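subagent[fold] <- orchestrator: predict structure for attached chain, return tokens only, no commentary.
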Amino acid sequence: MRLLRDDVLEPASARLGTRFWIFPQPPFIPGYEQPDRVWLSIPRDEIGEGPSDPTMYVVDPLMDKQPYSFNQLPPFGGARRAPPTPGPDRHFDNLLPDSRGFLGVHAYACVHFVLDIWQSYLGRPIRWFFGQTFPRLEIVAFVNWDNAQAGYGFLELGCSDVGGIRRPYALNFDAIAHEVGHIILLSETGIPTAPSRGDDFFPFSEAFSDVVSLISFLHFDSAIDRLLRRTRGNLLLYNELNRFAETSPETQIRLATNFRRVSETTRNVHDRALPFIGAIFDTIVELYHRELVARDCADIRLVDIDVRDLEQDDFDRFRQMTADAFQVKPMIFRLALTAARDAVGQAVAAALRTLDPNTLRLDQAANAVIAAAHGPAAGLLESNFAWREIISRR
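subagent[fold] -> orchestrator:
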């Protein structure tokens, strides 16, 4: 898979894939009004109108439909809008982003984009957990409903309605990636046979899905560029990054930047997921800064200091050194962040097949991720999961 901006020449290897537009964040977010052109790994001759392919297809109901439920599953049998078609070159970057047909094309591209990333981390194709019943995932481009959901054979996208403005979730990469995360988890671990809301499977499912969204978001070149520019390359200074996260449009970063420990959470599954998400994000950031230290782009003392205990003077000094280095060596910062992203993403992905959905506990999931990690990532994951009270300190 290759991600390309408009001003980048097409490499020969990318001609085997198909071009689409994706908004890394919804287009109403300042700074993200223009989508990124991406290359998906699926060849053009395997994609039909809709779009559709051997693993998934898009439907756009002509009239309002009820959301799917346990009593109502795909395939959708009602009247549909005319399916979008590719351009003369059989790529799908020909549609205008404000057209109705673009909703389904964008949702389809987001699903494939996330699958490309996590299949690369897993080292194998992802087989749908519902595959014996439905060979293909049905993507419903628009439902008049304030929610998005993934279920047995489907991904269904509604819309938010804030201030009287309807904003389709089909243009929200974060929402789509999160729902695809649920599908990936169930496809890799299997379905729990007797789930209970008090079990750890549900908080882990929310945590994993948010991690899928975060790490997938960091595969957009434009997202990395904006994040590093906004922070001047310094992601390790938690107080500064937390203030950045509160006001930034990067949804995934806002969610992951938290100080929550297990003892501080409620019974809500989303709240119980926050310490796990935070530990993953902490590790990505610390790996990133270790690489900067190794390349003389950050203060070496950052490797041995718990930055949560730093005084403001230390914050300011470390921040200035990193900002000065970022101005001179921006590519080093990009490489450091992508390396940290991939080290953690591969560990999280590799841990999935070792988890039993019927007996899963958050500490077991954390230890599985630690065991799957390599190099300094393992030690940092252990330390961060312990600080979050997910595992015991050793």
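orchestrator: received. Logging for downstream: Residues 1-14 have pLDDT under 50 and may be disordered. Residues 66 and 72 are 9 Å apart (CA to CA).
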